[in-house]
Structure formats: structure tokens, C-alpha cells
Amino acid sequence: xxxxxxxxxxxxxxxxxxxxxxxxxxxxxxxxxxxxxxxxxxxxxxxxxxxxxxxxxxxxxxxxxxxxxxxxxxxxxxxxxxxxxxxxxxxxxxxxxxxxxxxxxxxxxxxxxxxxxxxxxxxxxxxxxxxxxxxxxxxxxxxxxxxxxxxxxxxxxxxxxxxxxxxxxxxxxxxxxxxxxxxxxxxxxxxxxxxxxxxxxxxxxxxxxxxxxxxxxxxxxxxxxxxxxxxxxxxxxxxxxxxxxxxxxxxxxxxxxxxxxxxxxxxxxxxxxxxxxxxxxxxxxxxxxxxxxxxxxxxxxxx
Length: 303
Fold this sequence. Notes:
The protein is α/β, with parallel strands linked by helices. It contains eleven helices and seven strands. The chain folds into two domains: 10-188, 3-Layer(aba) Sandwich (Rossmann fold); 195-281, GMP Synthetase, Chain A, domain 3 (2-Layer Sandwich).
């Protein structure tokens, strides 16, 4: 592995069709290029895909590689997407097994669950980077992530993990625009969040419940519903609350998909199956958080 200075042409990459996003993408390349080598925490989603692609361009493939966690909270289809992308683009990729349920406090699902998980997971990634002689670990947060309750960012700061997309001032829609210009089809991929976000804070998370949610969402995904969340409620009798985009709620409520969904979900172990009329919205489980919880996280996560 070689350590090198940032390329002098990074800020003036020629022949790119970007307009409003070109400057920020060049800034991103420059930020990444200030490091000699990097490990990219890679989920295969929109943000981490741009980060991985840019790291390969700015550092060279010999000075970076991607790492993805195989975990119960990570849908199998997303793991496959991550593996396929790296193979297609000639990027080195490692998949590491991660037992999130073995992280102290995680299964009890407290409001800082994401912090507990990210702290443990990124510690694994940092150790891996150190063992292989890589300088830094990158993760894919963007500027929009500051608008919601995200306790995992505290772990990112504590461990010194770098967030180049955020440093470059890139928001989600700008990231999608850059990916589209690069010709990477992931630009229109639906938002991804780990399956643990499907549980209200305080409800226990188990391997059985994670598998139920994963299978339920895969069923609807296979039926063509790409923007979908199956929220899990109840520690005894289980309720599946389905969120999807408002424009397709009527389709999901109509036959035959309504009956097929109800039957399959009950085969999985759900007692009741409900359709949320408010539709899909990111971070809906945070709606139940108290202001005290939000303020505690805000103060505890200051640099």
C-alpha cells in the first residue's frame, strides 16, 4: 500500500458533466485525497456508494477498500448489492460478521441504541484499518443527517471516524444528482436504514423479530413496493405497521395484495397487520421520543 499526496488535478477534474454539483464533488475528491489511505464503511446505499466511488478515484484502488457488516439488522439483499457493486467496479471488499445483539444494552432498545451499535461496529472497522495499515475510516453521513435524532453520530465523533460527504457540504439530493451524472443506477435507490429502526424504543429486539421484519419487507419489496417499512409493535401479540409512499397506499390496500400480505405476515407470526395512512416518513420511530431524550443526546454529542 502506498501513501501519496493528493493529486494536484483533484480540484479540476476535466470532462465531468456536473453543473451545480461539480464543485462539491471536486471538493469531496480533495477532502478524500488529503488522506493517504482509507477504509470505507460500505452499506451499498446511496451515500456510501458515492463515498466508495470517490475514494477509489481520489486515492486509487490500492489505497482503499470497503468493509460491510453482515448482521441480522442488515437486509440480505443490501449485502448482495454491496458485494455486487464492489465486484463490478474492481474495489476490494471485506464482509465482517457483526453480532449487534451481543452489544451490551442493544437488545433493550434504548433511545441511544444507535450509539451503542455504531460505537461497537466502528471500533471493529478501526481495528481492521489499523491491522491492515490504513490511515482512516470513512462513513457516509451527509448534511441532511443533522435534521433528525441520530445518536450514532456521537460514536462517529468519539472514534475519529471521518465523514467526507458532510465535510464537502453534500446533501442527499445532491448526492443522488452526482451519482446520476456518474451513470451509477444506485442514484434512485430508496433510503436504507437498518432493521433495528423498525422497533419503538423500549421494545426488546430479538433475532426472531429481526428475521420477521426482514422477511416481511422482502415480501413487499418483491411485490414491487420499493419505499417500504414494516414497523414492529408489541412484545407479546405482534403488530406489523406498514409504511409506504402515500401514492401507493391504495394499491397496497386493494386485492389481491391486501389479502396476500395479511396471510403471509400472519404466517410469519404477526397477530395484526396495519397500514399507516400517514405513509412512509424517515425516522418515524423518533416521533415518540421525548424532548428530554433529544436534549440529552444533543448535549452529550457535542465535540
